[in-house]
Design goal:
about 110 residues; alpha+beta; four-stranded antiparallel β-sheet; 6 strands; about 25% helix; elongated; binds zinc ion
Length: about 110
């Protein structure tokens, strides 16, 4: 077992230097995104890149998602105008009656 030419303390850490073939044919993934308006965009990503959940639609600027049937909600560009209208609508609908009847109840003299 005593080979005279045994390599002692061989350096295993020095790896081969020949793996430099990369960069010119990186595989790319094409991922489809759909916005709430139904626009489809198909950006491509590097295979090792993290694919975002939301992509901005290049046509209307709305966020687009990978689920065609369930695109992300569009940004709220309209101010509280519609919200206010919505609240007013609800007020006059049911709450108004409740408040009114309650007020009448209190006005009713109890003897
Ligand atoms: Zn769009």
């Amino acid at each position: 077992m005593a080979g005279g030419s045994a390599i002692r303390g061989s350096r295993v850490g020095a790896g081969p230097m020949g793996e430099a073939e990369r960069g010119d044919a990186a595989p790319r993934l094409r991922v489809s995104f759909w916005c709430a308006k139904g626009h489809e965009t198909e950006p491509s990503f590097a295979a090792d890149a993290a694919i975002p959940e939301v992509w901005d639609c290049p046509r209307c600027g709305w966020p687009a998602g990978q689920d065609r049937d369930n695109p992300p909600a569009p940004p709220r560009t309209e101010p509280y105008k519609t919200h206010l209208a919505y609240v007013k609508e609800r007020r006059s609908d049911g709450d108004g009656d409740a408040i009114l009847s309650e007020a009448l109840e209190r006005l009713r003299p109890t003897s």
